[in-house]
Amino acid sequence: xxxxGKFITLEGxxxxxxTTNMSFLKDYLSLHGIPVTLTREPGGTPLAEHxxxxxxESSDEVITDQAELLLxxxxxAQHLKQVIEPALHAGSWVICDRxxxxxxxxxxxxxxxxxxxxxxxxNFVQGNLRPDLTFLFxxxxxxxxxxxxxxxxxxxIESETLVxxxxxxxxxxxxxxxxxxxxxVIKSDQALIDVQSEITRFLHPFVFNDHHS
Length: 213
Ligand code: TMP
Hints:
Helices cover 55% and strands 13% of the residues. The protein has 213 residues and is of the alpha/beta class. It has a single domain (7-212), classed as 3-Layer(aba) Sandwich (Rossmann fold). Helix 2 (46-56) packs antiparallel against helix 3 and helix 3 (65-89) packs parallel to helix 5. The protein binds thymidine-5'-phosphate. Thymidine-5'-phosphate (TMP) is lined by residues 41-42, 72, 97-98, 102-103, 106-107, 157-158.
């Protein structure tokens, strides 16, 4: 079946403002008459949300890096088949709060897991499906963590060290360098109005159909 909708993902470290920008994106697309499905990873279906709880709650049993990676992709496999692919086939655009770039950044960059292993799982689970457009919201690690801490108590991954989050940030920025056509980096420690005008600038060609991929 032909995919008709566009697949947009939002990425970045902790506390970079993805939630605020997600509702801005939704409003912007709705205003232009585009049907939108909002979702997130890990999560987005009942099973995947269960897996999210397993991944994010702190527990006495240490989750191995391999188990963490596989749980991310188990949640993703379910989410893709149940939510993302049906929505795209039905012509809805999908905006997903985090996707596989987060796996390269957190499990690859943060945990030092092999990029080849991640790539293999990406191909296995997703086939050819990749986001059409990705916004990478970037801010210095300490600024984001302060915001995350302010918001609520930290979950298992948010409780990682500064070094971990520096590696995550570096891995994200490297991916953006490798795929500049798809991944648009937006500095999120600037005024919201400036963040939003950059978002609309990058969205424009997709909305008005003059994007050639
Ligand atoms: P959230 O805080 O943006 O909802 O994301 C949940 C956490 O899961 C966040 O700390 C990043 C992490 N994560 C990974 O480590 N790998 C992944 O593939 C995804 C999707 C999220």
